[in-house]
Amino acid sequence: MKNIAFGILLIIFILVIAIIVFFFSTSGGLFGNCGIYKISHTVSPTSKYEVRVFKRDCGATTLIATVVAIREIKKKNEYQDLFILEGDLQITARWIDTTELLISSSSMDQESIYKKILHWNDVRVIYKLIKE
After folding, report:
1. The dihedral of CA 67, 73, 76, 78: what is its sign?
2. Around 78, how many Cα atoms within 13 Å sit in the side-chain half-sphere?
3. What pLDDT is recorded for position 115?
4. Range of 41's domain?
5. For the chain, the helix, strand and coil percentages under 3-state DSSP, each to the nearest 5
6. 18 and 39, same structural domain?
7. Tens of pLDDT along 59-104?
């Protein structure tokens, strides 16, 4: 009788461990992963750089951030955040020439800006407020 009870407890224990492992492997852990929602991307005139604009949403306890990130085309997935603005705002990025990038936003409120880089490698970043 003790062997049957022990066997049942062992099976329950293994099932609980399997459920926990499944939860962590599919959900990103206890707190989950941030959602990344791509808005746009653009490649520089020389095809040396790529810029992406996206929204990062890490759940109900944090604000949505709108991000502009850049990378060298030859370096896959090595993006550097140029501009991070708290909130779900309209942001565009476009190349003015080979080394100048224009980032336009419907808000440039200093309290909402988390990060704002003016130069990255040989790229000069210019910021412009879009008046609505």
Report:
1. negative
2. 6
3. 92
4. 35-129
5. 20, 45, 35
6. no
7. 777 778 899 999 999 888 889 999 998 888 888 999 999 999 999 9
Question: Helix (H, G, I), strand (E, B), or coil: what is residue 73?
Answer: coil
This prediction has a pTM of 0.70
Distance CA 52, CA 79 (A): 9
pLDDT digits (tens, 9 = 90+) for 6-57: 777 778 878 767 666 555 544 444 445 788 889 899 999 999 999 999 998 8
Same domain, 92 and 122: yes
123 with 67, same domain: the answer is yes
Q: What is the pLDDT of residue 78?
A: 87
85 and 20 within one domain: no
What b-and-e string marks burial along 99-128, b requiring 16 or more CB atoms within 10 Å of the CB? bebebebebbeeebeeebeeeeeebebebe
Are 41 and 90 members of one domain?
A: yes
Q: How far apart are CA 77 and CA 31, in angstroms?
A: 24
Give the chain's domain count: 2
